[in-house]
Design brief:
Layout lengths: L4 E3 L8 H7 L11 H17 L3 E12 L3 E4 L3 E4 L1 H6 L5 E8 L2 H12 L3 H31 L3 E3 L15 H9 L7 E2 L5 E2 L3 E10 L2
Antiparallel strand pairs: 1-2, 2-3, 2-5, 3-4, 5-9, 6-9, 7-8
Helix pairs in contact: 1-5, 2-5, 4-5
């Protein structure tokens, strides 16, 4: 079983299509005038300058899978029928995490407190979508390694707090990956701080 890998200074271009969609714009249906587009693009550039994208990941052997439980090495257990179904053909699990850092959250708060709610909403959208893309970046990093081993990664990933995977499992992922090393904290109610931080689980299996 490998040690946790930490990734710093990740460079990802903000996914503009997803950001615009999150803001309610639909391609071919919603018209964005020049003034609106200029405001959004300025905010995207501002958000990009504030984000400090980092991530962590670890491969862990799957010891047992039942219809409602996944047991990993180190005694790590996840109770979830949906996760069990997703991992049923996997021999390992890949635990992942990503964060956009504190500075972007401070920038969002400043804009909100100043009454610049539109700017705050745009910054929030950029941070959310870009943080999710860090998980894609980590997945791609591992896929390159796995293909040389005759393995691949599940196309789906699962996060604590979604479906039937209780949010309490976020603490398990947090502790296993040592996310304090990325400057991420976790509350007693299992919420990650800074807010634009996410965790996920994917499966590693034999390539078809």
């Amino acid at each position: 079983m490998e040690d946790t890998r930490y990734f710093h200074n990740i460079i990802i271009m903000p996914p503009r299509d997803l950001i615009y969609a999150r803001l309610g714009y639909r391609r071919g249906k919603t018209k964005v005038d020049d003034r609106q587009k200029e405001e959004i693009e300025r905010a995207i550039e501002q958000a990009q300058s504030f984000m400090e994208l980092k991530g962590a990941a670890k491969r862990i052997r799957i010891e047992k899978i039942t219809s409602s439980e996944v047991v990993l090495a180190q005694g790590i257990t996840f109770d979830s029928r949906q996760l069990s179904s997703m991992l049923k053909d996997s021999n390992e699990a890949l635990l992942m995490a990503a964060t956009a850092g504190n500075r972007i959250m401070q920038a969002i708060k400043v804009e909100s407190d100043s009454g610049n709610l539109t700017r705050a909403v745009i910054l929030d959208a950029v941070a959310s979508e870009t943080t999710d893309k860090v998980l894609d970046w980590i997945s791609s990093f591992y896929k390159q390694e796995l293909v040389r081993q005759g393995l691949n990664l599940t196309s789906r990933r699962y996060s604590a707090g979604y479906g039937d995977l209780d949010l309490k499992h976020q603490k398990t992922i947090y502790d296993t990956l040592g996310l304090n090393r990325l400057g991420v904290k976790i509350t007693d109610s299992y919420i990650l701080i800074p807010e634009k931080s996410v965790t996920a689980i994917a499966g590693i299996r034999q390539a078809a």
